[in-house]
Amino acid sequence: MVGDNLEPGIYSISEARKIAQDIGLDLVIISENATPPVCRVTDYSKFLYEKKKREKEIKANAQKTVVKEIRFGPNTDEHDFEFKLKHAQKFLEEGAKVKAYVQFRGRAIVFKERGELLLLTFASRLEELSKVESLPKLEGKRMFLHLAPKSSKSK
């Protein structure tokens, strides 16, 4: 048992409860898995407030994943492809995920192979910056490819 203005030590549950009651505070279990379990004599509402505050701070510091989309047509020209490739490189260097897709319109759906080839070429050109999360997959009139940046720890 630990606490403010309290001698840390090992007490039985009944002793610990009595000590906490005499001080006018609550007995809170901090670590159940420890041997023996660690308890603290503190104000429970204050304990909950501090716990919530710590969790909020951790959540605020957590990195948010951004997904950028790049759209192609099945007949995308080489210049347009290079232009969009540069944008994807910039997004990946910033740490964002990239979702590239080919939008098929009207009867262009018959060129599925061309769209798949375009996405596979796109993935192979970005091979040193990214890793493929999912291979090209047709959903409705769109064919998707998901890329994630390679971890910056390897640099």
What's the gist of this structure?
The protein has 155 residues and is α/β, with parallel strands linked by helices. The protein has four helices and seven strands, in the order E-H-E-E-H-E-H-E-H-E-E. The chain has two domains: 2-60, Ubiquitin-like (UB roll) (Roll); 67-154, Translation initiation factor 3 (IF-3), C-terminal domain (Translation Initiation Factor IF3).
The CATH architecture of the largest domain is 2-Layer Sandwich
Q: Within the CATH hierarchy, at the fold level, what is the topology of the largest domain? A: Translation Initiation Factor IF3
Structural class: alpha/beta
Strands of the widest sheet, in order across it, are 4-5-7-6
Terminal CA distance reads: 46 Å
What is the element string, with H for helices and E for strands?
Answer: EHEEHEHEHEE
Major beta sheet summary: 4 strands, mixed
The beta-strand count equals 7
Shape, principal axes of CA atoms: rod-shaped
Q: Mean pLDDT, rounded to whole units?
A: 85
Describe the structure.
The protein is built from four helices and seven strands; from the N terminus they run βαββαβαβαββ. It has helices at residues 13-23, 44-61, 78-93, 112-125; strands spanning 2-3, 26-31, 38-42, 67-72, 97-103, 130-139, 142-149. The longest helix has 18 residues, at 44-61. 17% of the residues are buried. The mean pLDDT is 85. A four-stranded mixed beta sheet has the order 4-5-7-6, with helices on one face. It has a three-stranded mixed beta sheet with strand order 1-3-2. It is rod-shaped. The protein has 155 residues and is an alpha/beta fold.
